[in-house]
Write a structure and sequence with these properties.
Elements lengths: L7 E6 L3 H13 L2 E6 L2 H12 L8 E4 L8 H9 L9 E5 L4 H8 L4 E5 L5 H19 L2
Helix pairs in contact: 1-5, 2-3
């Protein structure tokens, strides 16, 4: 996740290409560089590369929960197993409304749960920006 032109990098895991494109536009307009992947397996490969310091970490992750193969919750759990990645905010952006999953997400450090039906892409940009700023203050980066 190299930060091209000093833009803040966001990593989005989503299998709906139209939504990815809308979000990518909203984030780019607001000065972000968004990288996306459509499968949980692809995301897990990149998470392992981040852990092994083969690629730079993003400033934030945005994860859908319902993905082909590995779920967004599995990706969240893998990221949070590594304490050095706790400073990276994760926004679960999903249509999956399950109280148990929502409670787990909300009780996971530096993580926010957002229903897709509740926000438009520009609001998602604001949510992610706020999480990044809160994380910088909390983790003094």
């Amino acid at each position: 996740m190299d930060e091209k032109q000093n833009k803040t990098a966001v990593y989005y895991v989503e299998d709906e290409p139209d939504l990815v494109e809308l979000c990518k536009i909203a984030f780019q307009i607001n000065g972000f560089n968004m990288q996306s992947v459509a499968t949980g397996e692809g995301a897990m490969e990149d998470v392992k590369k981040i852990i092994n310091k083969e690629i730079d970490p993003p400033s934030a992750f945005i994860l859908d929960i319902l993905l082909p193969g590995i779920s967004g919750m599995d990706i969240l759990r893998e990221i949070r197993k590594h304490k050095e990645l706790n400073r990276i905010p994760i926004v679960l952006f999903t249509n999956y409304s399950d109280k148990k999953i929502r409670d787990e997400a909300e009780n996971t450090e530096n993580t926010e749960y957002v229903l897709k039906t509740d926000v438009i892409p520009t609001q998602l940009v604001k949510i992610v920006s706020k999480k990044i700023e809160e994380s910088k203050v909390k983790y003094k980066k």
